[in-house]
TrEMBL record:
GO terms for biological process: phosphorelay signal transduction system. The modification 4-aspartylphosphate is found at residue 58. SMART domains: REC (SM00448). PROSITE patterns: RESPONSE_REGULATORY (PS50110). It comes from the Bacteria. SUPFAM superfamilies: CheY-like. Keywords: Phosphoprotein. Residues 8-121 form the Response regulatory domain. This is Response regulator receiver domain-containing protein. InterPro entries: Bact_response_regulator, CheY-like_superfamily, Sig_transdc_resp-reg_receiver. Pfam families: Response_reg. It comes from Mesorhizobium qingshengii.
Amino acid sequence: MTTQSLVTVLVVEDEAFLLFAIADDLREAGFDVLEASNADQAIRILESRQDIAILFTDIDMPGSMDGLRLSAAVRDRWPPVKIIITSGKQRPARDAMPSGGVFLPKPYAPTAVAATIHGLLA
C-alpha cells in the first residue's frame, strides 16, 4: 500500500465531465476521491467525514458560494485540510487565497494535480 492510497481528496467541480475526469485520474493515481458539484455538497461531505486531507475546488460554481468562499470556510472550520484552487477564467489575488492555498490554472494535466497534492503533503 502506498502513502497516497491513504489520502482522501474532495474534488469540487460543477462541470460534470471535468469532475468525472479529474476524479478518475486521481483514483488511478491511488487517491481516495470524493466528488461534489457545488460548495453546499462539499460542506455536507466535510461535515460527515474526518479523513479529508485535500480540497481541490474550482472557483466558478453555482450555489450559495464560489470556490474562494468555500476555501475560506474550509480554512476556518477544517484548518488541517490542504487547499488547491483552480480556474480557467480568473487567477485570484494573493490576498483572496486561503492561507497555505495553492492555485492551479486550467487547463491542467492530471499529473500536475497529483504532483501538487504530493507537494502539499510533503
